[in-house]
Write a structure and sequence with these properties.
This protein has about 450 residues and is α+β, with helices and mostly antiparallel strands. The protein is about 35% helix and about 30% strand. It comes from Sipha flava.
Length: about 450
């Protein structure tokens, strides 16, 4: 007799022996539950987290699932406390039709045979234990990325029997973990924790309310890596842009290179993070931050353009003012008409204003405005005042003392600090609110 034949005899002996240790009622039907209001309890040993797929919104778990229920129609013949029954995919007795609502795929672990067992206790309680890799579909929202906290509810129930026939609940010690579990499974991006909901949860499937035992999986993202890889560099780029305010406006190449390089670096960072982060229907938290940092640098570049324009207009105004002073001193710079002279305007063109009994010419420079006029109409007076105000603003921006740069050097950091405080308070508060509402 060969080895294969001896193994077959051993397996046959165990099968016969297990049948001799218990009996079932003669009218037993494996298609019928033991009665109304059957109590099915669950426990779960979570061995490890295989992975989290953000693009597919899935979580892969390696678990050992234990299902308990009492069937008075089956009992042990002797005083043995428990009996291990032979695992069969088509058992001779009734088992609950367990349904996991968020289950995407389930694969029973196999070595020499399926890792599964059936045990009968002396109080007619049956326990099925099965080891499997399950993939859970989890609805994820990445608007708060990377401050998001994903909460996934997994419901264990029956797809056939309503809560009038069968109730699912967790056992007194529902979850067990490996010895190195600690505060949670730590993945490269998440810290995963598990909590059972001991409340009576009900789901309506179209033919009545079905009782479920709910497991809540919480995925808390590791924020430290994002702070070092995204938030800190972008903040440093914004601070570097403030250095342009202390560079002399006449040094155009140095100041332009600093601002344009910083702006392009932030745009490249934004594009990289946007492509590598999960998709969302709205702007994500980190995208709001990077766009705001880019706008701060862009506004610093716009401020420099205003300074350059003011400097150019300031030089033009000083040149025209010299011509005007010479004309008022006796130089005939206007037409042959007596009393006529040139006045520079906003865009550097000259208009001839003739003096008369009803109108007096208005003269303005960057130091003071001398107005002696009785304007013929209010619209002309408003237009003249607007021109004078515009000239003073431009001359202020183009002042050789760098007045606008001094104001910007204090205003930009203040605005960025206010934005940062509002940003972190708003998004952290929203993240905690959603986390608390999901756990209630």
């Amino acid at each position: 007799m060969g080895p294969s034949a001896s193994l077959s005899l051993v397996a046959m002996f165990h099968l016969v022996r297990s049948k001799d240790l218990y009996e079932m009622e003669t009218e037993y039907s494996k298609n019928m539950p033991p009665g109304k209001d059957v109590d099915v309890s669950l426990s779960l040993h979570i061995n490890r987290i295989s992975g989290v797929d953000e693009s597919k919104e899935e979580i892969a778990l390696d678990v050992f699932l234990h299902v308990y229920w009492e069937d008075p129609r089956i009992r042990i013949l002797d005083n043995t406390s428990q009996v291990e029954l032979t695992w069969d995919k088509d058992p001779r007795f009734w088992i609950p039709d367990l349904y996991i609502r968020q289950l995407r795929e389930m694969k029973v672990l196999t070595l020499f045979q399926d890792i599964a067992s059936i045990r009968l206790y002396n109080n007619s309680t049956l326990r099925i234990s099965i080891g499997a890799t399950i993939i859970i579909k989890c609805d994820m929202d990445f608007v708060l990325y990377p401050l998001d906290v994903q909460t996934c509810a997994v419901d264990f129930g029956s797809y056939k029997y309503t809560m009038m026939d069968m109730k699912f609940r967790w056992r007194e010690d529902p979850l067990s973990f490996p010895s190195d579990f600690g505060d949670g499974f730590r993945l490269p991006r998440y810290v995963v924790s598990f909590v059972t909901d001991n409340r009576s949860n009900v789901i309506y499937y179209g033919d009545g309310n079905h009782s479920t035992a709910r497991l809540v999986i919480t995925l808390s993202r590791e924020l430290r890596s994002h702070l070092l890889e995204s938030y800190l560099p972008s903040t440093l780029f914004v601070i570097m842009s403030w250095g342009s305010f202390v560079v002399m406006p006449e040094v155009v190449p140095g100041r332009m290179v600093l601002l344009v390089t910083t702006l392009l670096s932030l745009v490249t960072m934004f594009d990289t993070i946007r492509n590598n982060s999960p998709s969302a229907l709205e702007l994500k938290c980190i995208e709001v931050w990077l766009i705001s940092c880019t706008l701060f640098v862009f506004l610093a570049l716009v401020e420099y353009f205003v300074v350059l324009f003011g400097m150019r207009y300031d030089k033009h105004w000083r040149h025209k003012k010299g011509d005007l002073d010479r004309g008022l001193g006796g130089v005939d710079s206007g037409p042959s008409r007596p009393g006529a002279f040139n006045v520079p305007t906003l865009f550097g063109t000259n208009k001839v204003h003739a003096a008369s009994d009803n109108n007096t010419v208005v003269v303005a420079d960057n130091a003071n405005v001398t107005a002696k006029a009785q304007c013929p109409s209010s619209s002309a007076a408003g237009k003249l005042r607007f021109q004078l105000l515009t000239k003073h603003v431009i001359l202020y921006c183009g002042s050789q003392r760098g007045t606008l740069d001094q104001v910007s050097l204090a205003l930009f950091p203040l605005c960025f600090v206010v934005f940062s405080v509002v940003y972190w308070i708003s998004y952290i508060g929203e993240s905690r609110r959603k986390s608390l509402s999901a756990n209630v």
